[in-house]
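Hello forum,

I keep getting stuck at the same step: I have a sequence, I want structure tokens, and every attempt I make locally crashes halfway through. Rather than fight my setup again tonight, could one of you with a working pipeline run this one for me? It's a single chain of 116 residues.
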Amino acid sequence: MGGVLLPPGEAGPDDVVLSWQGADVVAVRLPQLAESLDHLLAAMERTQGRPLAELDRKAKQEVVRTLESRGAFSVRHGVETVARALGVSRFTIYNYLNYASEQRARAGGGDERRPR
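Reply #2:
Ran it on my machine without issues. Output:
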């Protein structure tokens, strides 16, 4: 997700310091959420082996489902960022999210997060 390891003495107030047997051994600086989304999109592109905008509709729907499960749409402007990466409209992203929710409901794995 793009975190950076630092010596514990360089840790800032937002960093996570990890300890082992009572001694601080490393600090982790996590990226801002928006940067994490960029990392997720880049990883998805590497996995697919081509730009996300070149994927067919079914593959784009799968990318949206994966990104949703990883919290991509809780990031400010997440829908717009993903839409731009996939080469589709925000409306299309919302349609893909609704479709995924309907598929889960049919499979018995309802989704309380999305109102019907």
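The chain has a mean pLDDT of 85. If your local run keeps crashing, start a new thread with the error log.
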